[in-house]
Specification:
CATH topology of the largest domain in chain A: D-Maltodextrin-Binding Protein, domain 2
CATH architecture of chain C: Orthogonal Bundle
CATH class of chain C: Mainly Alpha
Number of strands of chain C: 0
CATH topology of chain C: MetI-like fold
Largest interface: B-C, 100 and 111 residues
Structural class of chain C: mainly alpha
Distance between the termini of chain C: 26 Å
Largest sheet of chain A: 6 strands, mixed
Largest sheet of chain C: none
Number of domains of chain C: 1
Order of helices and strands of chain C: HHHHHHHHHHHHHH
Distance between the termini of chain A: 72 Å
Oligomer: heterotrimer
Radius of gyration of chain A: 24 Å
Helix content of chain C: 55-70%
Strand content of chain C: under 5%
CATH superfamily of the largest domain in chain A: Periplasmic binding protein-like II
Number of helices of chain A: 20
CATH class of the largest domain in chain A: Alpha Beta
Radius of gyration of chain C: 24 Å
Chains: A alpha/beta, B mainly alpha, C mainly alpha
Chain lengths: 449, 286, 320
């Protein structure tokens, strides 16, 4: 027995030797190391190397994470957080600010003549602006338009759609493109859409998730209900969109809306609601012939904008150097790179009006870049409420919407339940935080916070 | 072994062995094996498909893409992650088995005040969900400067109440006559441990080794939070790379998983023989 | 044993125990005590809420928290598969204990699900549960057709239906919710993973320890194979069964986390959220560490009580 242990120990020591030997050089002492936590999208590699080329005094490295805020916050709490990290939503931003991890860089950026509030697309504000203060720079921004598959249109003998239209005008078109095969199984649907884009419908009918002052959840307003009703009807009344079970027939997935992309790429939908960043996946499928048209709108012509921003860790010893990364995000090289990689749209408005953007020589088929830029003007950021935790409220809302999505509950009842539960959650949050309660009282009392 | 040399399988008193080659048990085994294996065949086939086809009904790819395997290595430093996973899991297993055996011996054989109370404490800690202890554990790591290092990944995992429990049970079943004989011959507890107990507990050690290696090999959350440099990451973290804002590259995940599993299968096939003869001892006596 | 001998043993014990015990204190007991302490506070990682000891407030809030009770019921529901899983692993062990040709291959194949845990497995099962194109429903549909039963195959992962008609939002039973839904889908998947898994290995080992003389003696006395099993094999297996049952309960109470996180995100409509996933979301999404710790300790108390009951119940065979 002894020999087994001794032998294993010897073997492990050998492995340890190998491990030590193959460790890469830890850091070049002449360069300042910067760690950037972001999701492991393959496009990041180039984004990092361009930065390192431009700033040879830095050594930026990517630390991948797509499991939510846990890693950044736990590490930061213990004082070893990353220098730069990405934020994917307004509520996450507020969480980072409240935990004291996000650094307010409004003044620092202004010193370098960078004014994000003027230069960036307004749709991106939710991920890096809180209460008028700037905490980072947006890395990209997106609204959804309608991708259409030219081959399916040709097969059905339908001319390609052009210009803008309302949902009423759109539905008959989608119905023409919803075709079943001989067994009654769906061959392809007229429209595919990711469920997590539901906010667009609410906004387009004049509704909101939270009231303007953030004190209430207003999903139970008639406008919001009307918006969700349309989304529901697309599946169950007009049957132009797959219900979740149909969708499961054709493909299943999770992740960031990759389900609909795979479906669309597999020819299971004539049209799909998606962003420009779909190209990252769609470019691989050489057989697709694509076109883009602006998404239909309801009584209000707005689109829901979403995106990502990079924030600087307030407690990082290299936070001043990290500011250079933010400046890089505002610079030409990065913005052009994003446009070229089609990782949604570049954050700064002015770089979307260049000829290189409109006609990228490497992708001559993509003749629709003007559409993406033009609809971006109608992109509105999502609103948050400072009085509730985003994840808690989000889960409550999602629970109700799941029922709507599977047609197990009427839209009206679900929305009312959601609003009621979120308002209850707001009260619970206020009970925990006296400072917040004060602010709430003041806001409700009419004062601007 | 019966007198006529026939081996009678336990359970139904020899019923099994009276069947021919295609007897009921063969059929049953085959059917069950098919249900456990079919999904993996699907997975294997999916690893050769282009992304659009992964979730089509037809399990066979219309376009075989063996380059998926190469792409796995290109997209992430898969070889390094492989090495890290095996390296870390091996060390953890070694340390766990060693320390649990020693502690198990202390609980099973040696008499000392408070022994059973401390053991109940060990047991109790098995019952608490581990999620919330992550933050204090992490802080301890930072204070000890073990962040982002191999030590940080190995050391906390090397102590296992479960392992101690299992090996204690094992050692309880070894007849005390043997150690008493050794003690009379003047052997110290240490000698008894090494020369008498451990060899007899070998099956238990192997069982623990398998459970421990597998558990650590597949663990995700703790290494994710603890590592910052790419060179320290393990396979489960690496697999996350195929699931980003870019979309979920299911075919690559399947390819990576197929490669992932190989060390485990090798480990199992080599050691399962020892398992069969031994785990029961751990559970027979209380 | 004489006094110096006793002391000698205690010292030796300390020596053997030390490495393990130090690690235990630092990495297990210490953080646990910390989390116990935190459960009596309002720690929420937010800088603007001052850290305060709030006593048993978290526990009180727990009792009133509807979500907690719903998820508690979910966790218990998931245990429905446990008896099937344990019995199944026994059957598999019986099959695999034989010395047939190629038994090693069979053993490896049965154990395969335990090897391949993780994301890939979950993706796999999501595809299998495809309501219209997945193989499971294809077989069910065919079977229903054959038997001329006018029913549709279930929606599995998309449905909040379940065997008891539990309403997803309230602690109530609703007529319309009977059926097979996400929870049942996860239970079936869990059984599939478990029958060839670790418990099977434990039973396998236990079976080969059943003394041949006993089974032979019973046979000579004219017992049929079922009687042999009932009166000879099964009692010999009792200690193993006990061990497996205790560990399964502990595992079941703490489980459901990976599936919720990777496969279903706790849905649809919160039906597959178990207590351990709830703890995770409270701790790492909403950052209410104090509250999450309180839930953990309540869970511990429950597991502890159940284990004690099991212990008492099974103690006859345990302490034979």
């Amino acid at each position: 027995m002894k020999y087994v242990f001794l032998g294993s120990f010897a073997f492990l020591s050998l492995l340890s030797g190998i491990a030590w030997f193959i460790q890469p050089e830890h850091q070049r002492h002449d360069r300042v190391p910067l760690i950037w936590v972001s999701d492991p999208n393959p496009a990041r590699r180039e984004q990092v190397s361009v930065f390192n080329d431009l700033h040879s005094q830095y050594d930026l490295k990517l630390d991948p994470n797509n499991s939510g805020m846990a890693k950044v916050i736990v590490q930061s709490l213990a004082g070893v957080g990353p220098d730069i990290f990405d934020c994917y939503g307004g509520f996450d931003l507020s969480g980072y600010v409240k935990a004291g991890v996000a650094w307010d860089v409004t003044d620092e950026l202004a010193k370098g003549e960078i004014h994000p509030l003027q230069d960036c697309w307004p749709g991106s504000f939710s991920v890096f602006v809180l209460d008028g203060r700037v905490y980072g720079m947006p890395t990209n921004v997106s609204v959804n338009a309608i991708w259409y598959n030219k081959d399916i249109f040709d097969a059905c003998g339908v001319p390609y759609p052009k210009g803008e239209c309302t949902w009423e005008q759109f539905i008959p078109l989608a119905q023409k493109l919803t075709v079943k095969d001989e067994n009654g199984r769906p061959k392809h649907f007229g429209l595919l859409a990711d469920w997590w884009g539901w906010k667009q419908f609410v906004y387009q009918y004049g509704g909101r998730v939270y009231s303007e002052d953030g004190t209430r959840c207003v999903l139970d307003s008639p406008e919001a209900i009307a918006g969700m009703q349309l989304f529901h009807d697309l599946m169950y009344k007009y049957r132009v969109m797959p219900s979740p079970s149909d969708e499961q027939n054709m493909a299943t997935t999770g992740g960031w809306g990759s389900g609909t992309i795979t479906l669309f790429s597999g020819g299971r939908g004539a049209m799909a609601v998606g962003g420009r960043w779909w190209l990252c996946t769609l470019r691989d499928n050489k057989k697709l012939r694509l076109g883009v048209m602006p998404a239909p709108f309801g009584p209000k012509k707005v689109y829901w904008a979403y995106g990502r921003a990079s924030l600087v860790n307030k407690n990082s010893p290299h936070r001043r150097e990290a500011l250079d990364f933010l400046r890089y995000l505002a610079g030409r090289e990065y913005n052009d790179l994003i446009n070229h990689q089609a990782d949604a749209l570049a954050p700064l408005k002015k770089y979307c009006y260049t000829p290189e953007y409109l006609h990228d020589p490497e992708f001559p088929n993509e003749d629709y870049n003007d559409v993406w830029r033009d609809i971006m003007r109608y992109g509105v950021p999502e609103e948050i409420s400072p009085f509730v935790d985003g994840h808690a409220a989000g889960r409550l809302i999602d629970k109700q919407l799941d029922l709507v999505r599977s047609d197990e509950e009427s839209v009206e009842k679900a929305m009312r339940n959601a609003a009621r539960q979120v308002n209850g959650e707001i009260q619970k949050t206020l009970a925990r935080d006296p400072q917040l309660r004060e602010r709430y009282e003041r806001t409700v009392g009419g004062e601007r916070p | 072994m019966r007198a006529d040399g026939k081996y009678i399988a336990p359970g139904f008193g020899g019923w099994w062995h009276r069947q021919g080659r295609w007897g009921a048990s063969h059929v049953l085994l085959a059917v069950l094996a098919v249900t456990t294996t079919l999904p993996f065949l699907w997975m294997l086939l999916a690893s050769f498909k282009p992304l659009e086809e992964v979730e089509q009904v037809n399990p066979f790819p219309t376009e075989w893409q063996p380059q998926n395997y190469r792409r796995v290595f290109e997209q992430i430093p898969f070889a390094r992650y492989y090495f890290n996973s095996v390296f870390i899991a091996a060390w953890v297993t070694f340390l766990q088995v060693l320390t649990s055996a020693m502690a198990g011996y202390a609980f099973a054989r040696l008499r000392w005040p408070g022994r059973d109370h401390v053991f109940k404490l060990y047991l109790a800690t098995l019952m608490i969900p581990g999620v919330v202890t992550m933050i204090p554990n992490f802080t301890v790591m930072v204070k000890l400067h073990l962040l982002d290092s191999y030590l940080g990944l190995i050391v906390p995992a090397a102590f296992s109440a479960f392992g101690t429990f299992l090996l204690r049970q094992f050692m309880l079943t070894i007849p005390t006559s043997l150690d008493e004989a050794a003690a009379i011959d003047g052997a110290s507890p240490w000698r008894i441990f090494w020369d008498v107990i451990l060899p007899l507990a070998r099956p238990g050690l192997i069982a623990l080794a398998i459970f421990s290696f597998m558990g650590n090999y597949q663990s995700l959350l703790w290494p994710l939070i603890l590592t910052k440099s790419e060179s320290l990451r393990t396979l489960p973290i690496g697999m996350l790379d195929f699931d980003s804002t870019y979309g979920r590259q299911t075919n690559l995940i399947m390819a990576a998983t197929v490669m992932n599993v190989i060390p485990l299968v090798i480990l199992f096939v080599c050691t399962q023989r020892y398992l069969v003869k031994g785990i029961q001892m751990g559970a027979v006596k209380g | 044993m004489s006094a110096p001998g006793r002391r000698h043993e205690t010292l030796a014990a300390l020596g053997f125990l030390a490495p393990n015990f130090i690690g235990f204190l630092v990495f297990t007991a210490g953080p646990l005590l910390f989390s116990l302490a935190v459960s009596f506070s309002n720690w929420s990682l937010q800088q603007n809420i001052p850290f305060q000891w709030t006593g048993a407030e978290n526990y009180g809030e727990l009792a009133k928290d509807k979500q907690f009770w719903i998820y508690f019921v979910n966790t218990i529901y998931m245990m429905l598969g446990m008896p099937v899983a344990i019995a199944g692993s026994l059957v598999c062990a019986l099959l695999l204990a034989q010395r047939l040709r190629g038994i090693v291959v069979y053993r490896t194949l049965f154990y395969l699900p335990t090897f391949v845990n993780g994301v890939a497995l979950m993706i796999l099962w999501k595809a299998l549960y495809n309501p219209s194109f997945g193989p499971i429903n294809a077989v069910l549909d065919w079977g229903l057709q054959m038997l001329h039963i006018p029913a549709k195959a279930p929606q599995w992962l998309l449905s909040t239906a379940n065997l008891f008609g539990l309403d997803p939002q309230e602690l109530a039973v609703t007529w319309t919710k009977f059926g097979l839904g996400a929870r049942d889908a996860l239970i079936i998947m869990g059984i599939w993973i478990a029958i060839g898994g670790n418990n099977m290995l434990l039973y396998l080992a236990a079976l080969t320890n059943v003394p041949q003389e006993l089974t032979e003696a019973a046979q000579i006395d004219g017992a049929g194979r079922w009687a042999v099993f009932r009166h000879v094999t099964w009692p010999q297996l009792a200690p193993t069964t006990f061990f497996i049952v205790v560990m399964s309960f502990i595992g079941a109470f703490q489980g459901g986390f990976e599936q919720a996180r990777v496969m279903t995100n706790g849905g649809p409509s919160g039906t597959t959220t178990t207590l351990s996933y709830y703890i995770y979301t409270k701790a790492f999404e909403e950052f209410q560490i104090g509250y999450a710790s309180a839930i953990s300790w309540v869970l511990f108390a429950i597991i502890f009580v159940v284990t004690m009951i099991n212990w008492k119940f099974g103690s006859e065979s345990w302490n034979e």
